[in-house]
Amino acid sequence: MNRISIFCILISLSFGNFASTDKDYDFNKDAYPFESEIKEELFYSLLFELRCPKCQSSNLAGSNSPISNDLKREVYELIKKDKSSDQIKTYLVERYGNFIIYNPPIEPATYVLWFGPLALILISIFSILFFRKRQIQ
Amino acid sequence: MKKLIDILPLVIFVILIGVLFSFLSNKNNQLETVLIDDTFPKFSLSSLEDDSRLLTQLDISELPALINVWATWCIACRVEHPFLMKLKRESIIPIYGLNYKDNRRKALELLKRDGNPFEFSIFDFEGRLAIDLGVYGAPETFFIDRNGVIRERHVGIVDDKIWEEKFAKYLYE
To answer: Do B34 and A53 touch (CB under 8 A)?
Structure first.
């Protein structure tokens, strides 16, 4: 029982990362006025999904580097021109590569990224089962 | 045989740690270049030397050529500058500058003081052409072949070693 609760605590701690990256941006929101709320929402959701190419571990929303400000402006202008979320992502991937999106497409170059963790979990489960069985025997 | 299987988890663990640590010390965090083998993007920006002169991709006319992204705020560019001057002095390849998010007056002062290795510099104050090139810092250098196609890109300082390793081969195609 004790083991299970420790396991649960560890699992819940590992989710802490997701929570902290969410709602913090340190730039002036008034600098990007929109005529509709839908466009504004698209703008902010994209800022969280796009990665700053210079800082690499931060999204555009959380970065104030010159390049992320340029990219914010670029995203802003594209939304103003009625481009869709997919069109904007494609536009940026054509220039900066898959790296720029935090949610990269599933393709051979990203297989390790997508399936690596799952493979590790499966290997771990099978090894645990295998070795326990041997111990019992 | 039994022993081997017993130490297998440890072996896998050690290998995994080794692989992950090698990623940690891997300083090569450069982004892929999507534009390799594409033609140079279209642009329309003023010249650094003369703000009334509008430059476009057609002005990059002497090919093959290097496009060098530089700025006065970029310290590494100053380290790279003597090498660009050497390329210019020895007429190895024409270099076109992309003055990136800079102050026009300061940029001109620097060229006057330290020498100007560029045929001309494109004044990209807002980083527009830079975004089309996937630039995310300075210095960056692109090799454009005789057909106007981007063949190679280097992020960081170009020196003799990088020139020989990455760029020189395209010159003799």
So the answer is: no
Burial class (CB in 10 A: 0-12, 13-18, 19+), A54: middle
CATH number at residue B121: 3.40.30.10
CB A44 within 8 A of CB A55: no
A95 touches chain B (CB under 8 A): yes
Q: ipTM of this complex > 0.90?
A: no
User: Cα–Cα distance between B91 and B88 in angstroms, integer?
Assistant: 5
Does residue B19 form part of some domain?
no
CA dihedral of A115, A120, A125, A126, whole degrees rounded to 10: 90
Question: Number of structural domains, chain B?
Answer: 1
Residue B94 within any structural domain of the chain: yes
pLDDT tens per residue across all 137 residues of chain A: 577 777 777 777 666 555 444 455 556 677 888 888 999 999 999 999 998 888 767 888 888 888 899 999 999 999 999 999 999 999 999 999 888 888 777 877 778 888 889 998 998 899 889 888 877 76
Q: Contact, B121 vs B107, CB < 8 A?
A: yes
pLDDT at B77 over 80: yes
> For residues A68 and A50, what is the distance between their CA atoms, to the nearest angstrom?
10
- Which strand (E) or helix (H) includes residue B12? helix B2-24
Test A67 with B126 for CB contact under 8 angstroms. Answer: no
Please indicate, yes or no, if residue B27 is contained in any of the structural domains. Answer: no
Question: Do A99 and B127 count as a contact with CB atoms less than 8 A apart?
Answer: no
Name the residue among A44, A97, A99, A53 with its Cα closest to residue A75: A44
Question: Chain A closest CA to B33's CA: distance in Å?
Answer: 7
